[in-house]
Amino acid sequence: MPLLDRIAITHRYTTLPSGFYRYVLPTPLDNPRWVIWNQPLAERFGFPGNANQSSELLKILSGTSFAEQFKPLAMKYAGHQFGIYNPDLGDGRGLLLGELISDSGSVFDLHLKGAGQTPYSRSGDGRAVLRSTIREYLCSEAMAGLGIPTTRALGMMVTDTPVYREKVESGALLLRLAETHIRFGHFEHFFYTEQHDHLQHLADKVIEWHFPQCQHTKQPYLAMFECIVALTADMIAHWQAKGFAHGVMNTDNMSILGQTFDYGPFGFMDDYEPGYICNHSDYQGRYAFNNQPSIALWNLTALAQALTPFIVRADLERALEQFTPRLQSQYSTYMRAKFGLVEKYPEDGAFFNDSFAFMESEGVDYTRFFRALSCLDSHDSASIIDLFVDRTKAEKWLSEYLLRCEKEALKTPERCEQMRKANPKYILRNYLAQQAIDKAEQGDFSLVHTLADVLKTPYDEQPEYNHLAKLPPEWGKRMAISCSS
Ligand code: AMP
Ligand code: MG
């Protein structure tokens, strides 16, 4: 039986009216071959263990040969890019091949990124380079390992097709899985083109597919929007807690399910630096790390605007007002877990503020700092003090922290064990991604595989990979990544 016949595939997006998408076949690339195949994820969709050895499957999933099980299409959407509305967006280089049904019955879009031009490509070539594909593969899997809502990566292929950016690079393909590829920008497109029937149809389908719990509420559209506000707040709180900066929070890169989406010039902070800008083209710092909460609210306001034809403005405003308290409450939960402080005391706020101000003034490594705090059951205080330049101040801070910990019900070993579940040892530092890319461009994919493996369980010690949890070298800090991908 052909391998694809064993996979449950559906096509619910094609039930939408034609204005939502265009059917487009992938444009084949030369000599596609697997860089990496996400076997554990693939198994959840019924792919057998050796699926990546099937040349037939490789040809189909790379878009080299046609399979009748798929109905590739490019979605139409629009969006606000750096605050300016752009009506001309859509899948310019990625195609929805179909939707896969997981073993637990959930439906996931299977999207092939880098598949060639579409009616929405504008002047783009429809391709993706190996460099950006590796970054997206590794980061989406790293985020999943951290427990942050995200799209997933099923596999990645490299090809012999040259792709022209600042230099000639290898064309690559990413197989992305996501519960949806519907973005804030989908709603904006139908609002700004005044296609209010389509807008409402989209909302109805989003509720049916993704928020069925809203169907029987008094105001299903408002309930849907409230869910999107809550999910977005939770995602951003989690980003802030783990030190992740997305880099291009345009409304076309915002999933309506609050999942981290469209990885571009993202970065995990090395030194604690609230104003960290990871996107080389973000001259104003619009998408700086500490702006992410307010930008998410700005994006939700843009989405709210698109929903005004069928939700009363005052209701939308009330829903938007829920964003900041929700985010702050989630963030506070994450931060308390990071410090291992469960009990609440009035003086905690001041302690957190002082701690962050100290971390910032010292430029301490964010991830290493919290991981070291989580290991005080087995390491001595030098593991913390050594991270700071001002050792006297660091000692004073640490004794204050330890004094505060004494007020906790959990004793040090138990507290530290809990803290290690909130403070990863391994993150996808930009310099590590860069090293994996440099090797991959020489044909050596070993570091891609190693990082993918290690980042699956970032809270585990994995002592054989200590070198991947080291402080970054000077050249690797504050790397700003170009948008070109
Ligand atoms: P991004 O910056 O990747 O979120 O993409 C913004 C828009 O540009 C989307 O509509 C993409 O589909 C489109 N796009 C990005 N890169 C390309 C490319 N190489 N060819 C065609 N369209 C692209
Ligand atoms: Mg995008």
Automatic annotation (TrEMBL):
The protein's required cofactors: Mg(2+); Mn(2+)
Alphabetical UniProt keywords: ATP-binding, Magnesium, Manganese, Metal-binding, Nucleotide-binding, Nucleotidyltransferase, Transferase
E.C. numbers: 2.7.7.-, 2.7.7.108
Active-site residue list: 252 (proton acceptor)
Ligand binding (ATP): 90, 92-93, 113, 125-126, 176, 183, 262
GO molecular function: AMPylase activity; ATP binding; magnesium ion binding; manganese ion binding
Catalytic activity: L-seryl-[protein] + UTP = O-(5'-uridylyl)-L-seryl-[protein] + diphosphate; L-seryl-[protein] + ATP = 3-O-(5'-adenylyl)-L-seryl-[protein] + diphosphate; L-tyrosyl-[protein] + UTP = O-(5'-uridylyl)-L-tyrosyl-[protein] + diphosphate; L-threonyl-[protein] + ATP = 3-O-(5'-adenylyl)-L-threonyl-[protein] + diphosphate
Keyword Cell inner membrane listed: no
Enzyme class per UniProt: transferase
Amino-acid positions noted as binding Mg(2+) in the UniProt annotation, renumbered to this chain: 253, 262
Chain segments annotated as coiled-coil in the UniProt record: none
Role: Nucleotidyltransferase involved in the post-translational modification of proteins. It can catalyze the addition of adenosine monophosphate (AMP) or uridine monophosphate (UMP) to a protein, resulting in modifications known as AMPylation and UMPylation.
Family: Belongs to the SELO family.
NCBIfam families: PRK00029.1
PANTHER family: PROTEIN ADENYLYLTRANSFERASE SELO, MITOCHONDRIAL (PTHR32057)
Name of the featured protein: Protein nucleotidyltransferase YdiU
Organism: Vibrio chaetopteri
Upper lineage: Bacteria, Pseudomonadati, Pseudomonadota, Gammaproteobacteria, Vibrionales
